[in-house]
């Protein structure tokens, strides 16, 4: 993937990160996690991210294929150090705002 543009051939994923350890362990690895995020924004995989409120984890909107995404989340420092786990939801957008139009699946007419 190139830069931070959307890839019309990629599927979208909601990566739901949940802390499974105390915030002390999360804070210990926060800078590593931020570097991990920056790396995958730079390669175009991550499109948006942020922490949950209340602070129980975070959410990442990503693009790619399932194998790539599964491999990538296993390298998140939060996962490596046992601070968090991911739930992965793949979806095919049928409606989008203008910024995501290249990702929309064609609507089938019956």
Describe the fold and architecture.
By secondary structure, this protein is of the alpha+beta class. The chain has one domain: Alpha-Beta Plaits, CATH 3.30.70.1060. Helix content is 28%, strand content 28%. The protein has 4 helices and 4 strands, in the order E-H-H-E-E-H-H-E. Strands 2-3-1-4 form a 4-stranded antiparallel beta sheet. Strand 2 and strand 3 form a beta hairpin. It is elongated, with a radius of gyration of 15 Å. The model has no long low-confidence stretch (mean pLDDT 88).
Topology:
Layout: E1 11-19, H1 23-28, H2 30-42, E2 46-51, E3 57-64, H3 66-73, H4 77-80, E4 84-91
Antiparallel strand pairs: 1-3, 1-4, 2-3
- In percent, how helical is the residue content? 25-40%
**The biggest beta sheet, please?**
4 strands, antiparallel
Quaternary organisation = single chain
CATH superfamily heading: Dimeric alpha+beta barrel
CATH-assigned fold name: Alpha-Beta Plaits
Q: Quickly give the CATH architecture.
A: 2-Layer Sandwich
> Mean pLDDT score, rounded?
88
Q: What is the rounded Rg?
A: 15 Å
Distance between the termini: 34 Å
Gross geometry: elongated
Q: What is the total domain count?
A: 1
Number of strands: 4
Low-confidence stretches: none
Helix segment tally: 4
Jot down its keywords:
110 residues, single chain, 4-stranded antiparallel sheet, Alpha-Beta Plaits, 4 helices, alpha+beta
In short:
The protein has 110 residues and is α+β, with helices and mostly antiparallel strands. Helix content is 28%, strand content 28%.
């Amino acid at each position: 993937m190139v830069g931070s543009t959307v890839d019309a051939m990629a599927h979208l994923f909601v990566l739901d990160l949940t802390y499974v350890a105390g915030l002390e362990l999360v804070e210990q690895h926060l800078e590593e996690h931020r570097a991990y995020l920056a790396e995958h924004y730079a390669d175009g995989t991550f499109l948006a991210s942020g922490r949950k409120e209340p602070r129980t984890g975070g959410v990442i909107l990503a693009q790619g294929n399932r194998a790539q995404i599964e491999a990538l989340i296993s390298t998140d420092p939060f996962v490596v150090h046992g601070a968090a786990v991911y739930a992965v939801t793949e979806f095919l957008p049928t409606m989008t705002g203008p910024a995501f139009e290249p990702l929309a699946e064609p609507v089938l007419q019956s």
